[in-house]
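User: quick one, fold this
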Amino acid sequence: MTPAKRLLDLVVALILVLLLALPFLLLLLVLRVIEGRPLFYVAERMKTPTEGFDLWKLRTMRPASQNAGVSGGDKKDRVTRTGRFLRRTRLDEVPQLWNVLRGDMSFVGPRPPLRLYVERHPEIYADVLKSRPGITGLASLHFHRHEERLLAACRTPAETDAVYSRRCIPRKAKLDLIYQEKRTLCLDLALMGRTVGRVLLWRNRQPFANRRSR
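Assistant:
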């Protein structure tokens, strides 16, 4: 990560922490009443091919003793009603500002992978993880919805794992490597802006969608 990219991450993260501190505390209180504890989901992700870190998110699923692998159709019954809202608005990722401040992640880069897939596909992640993992990125914007559709059709953990490994990882890696080749601060700002725009667009569409569903 270049000094300029790191400085951009720190400045934006600190501004967001100041702006979101009170609303986020109120959100935590609401979640505490509705969902109970734990409020956060903490899991290992990889920062480099050999170095992991604890990634923080708001919990969006009911706790389970076995929770390995990515989320597919086999886990959809565990996603809570508030969890679906948090995921769609990406509010579940607000705690990752802590990861950005720590330097575990950047705002823009490949999504941090599970150790399982880094060890399974070392030749892919040796290149992809030359970029610091990010909250958003080229692959997140251009492939995330298709990935969700692919995984939503899976009915078992084994099927989810196979589909993600064969059909998602290689395609996301191509986009991540395109970003790696062309990355600039201007590109980072553009991708961050598109991420915010996508969230706002979803929120603006909701009243119309709700009217149609009645």
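User: anything notable?
Assistant: The two ends are 49 Å apart (CA to CA).
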